[in-house]
Amino acid sequence: MTPGELYRGWFAEIWNGRQVDLMEKYITEESLFHSVNETGKSLKGPAGFRPFLETLLAAFPDIQFDVQHVIEDGDFAAGRWVARMTHTGQGMGVAPTGKEIVLTGMGFVRVADGKVQEVWDEWDRLGLLSAIGAVSFTAPAGG
């Protein structure tokens, strides 16, 4: 598979298809996910990624990703996605709110030997946490 096909396939099979058992089709035990989860910490391999995936699926059982654009350059692919979800499950430390949420994000992957070796993801973590009430903002006094 090309880097772009791996990028699209990951979202189609792992996220949208919930075929977690296919994770090794796309990544290795050494694959690094830079800044992927809600804390921004890096994750390594299926064992590192699986808890993040399970946490989001528990909180948002209906999450669906629409990969909108993918650009390839040699061993790299970059893509932009939109995720739609409803906060109906327990997860992320917040009781279900029933809120429908739309998030956008972008990912950049490096592929070697037919598998994703590194991923750099940027998505609106703060927007998600704010939408479910995990964090809140207050205006400064007098402002």
Describe the structure.
- This protein has 143 residues and is of the alpha+beta class.
- The protein has a single domain (3-131), classed as Nuclear Transport Factor 2, Chain: A, CATH 3.10.450.50.
- The protein is built from four helices and six strands, in the order H-H-E-E-H-E-E-E-E-H.
- It has helices spanning 3-16, 23-26, 45-59, 125-131; strands at residues 27-34, 43-44, 64-73, 76-86, 100-112, 115-123.
- A six-stranded mixed sheet has the order 2-1-6-5-4-3.
- The longest helix has 15 residues, at 45-59.
Succession of helices and strands: HHEEHEEEEH
Strand content: 35-45%
**From the 3D coordinates, which CATH architecture would you assign?**
Roll
**Total beta-strand segments:** 6
* DSSP helix fraction: 25-40%
Instruction: Give the number of domains.
Output: 1
What composes the largest sheet?
Answer: 6 strands, mixed
CATH class: Alpha Beta
Tally the helices: what do you get? 4
Structural class by helix and strand composition: alpha+beta
CATH topology: Nuclear Transport Factor 2, Chain: A
- Average pLDDT, rounded to a whole number, is 92
Tell me the span between the first and last alpha carbons.
Answer: 54 Å
Shape: globular
What Rg, in angstroms, do the CA atoms define? 16 Å
Name some characteristics of this structure.
single chain; 143 residues; alpha+beta; Nuclear Transport Factor 2, Chain: A; six-stranded mixed sheet; 4 helices
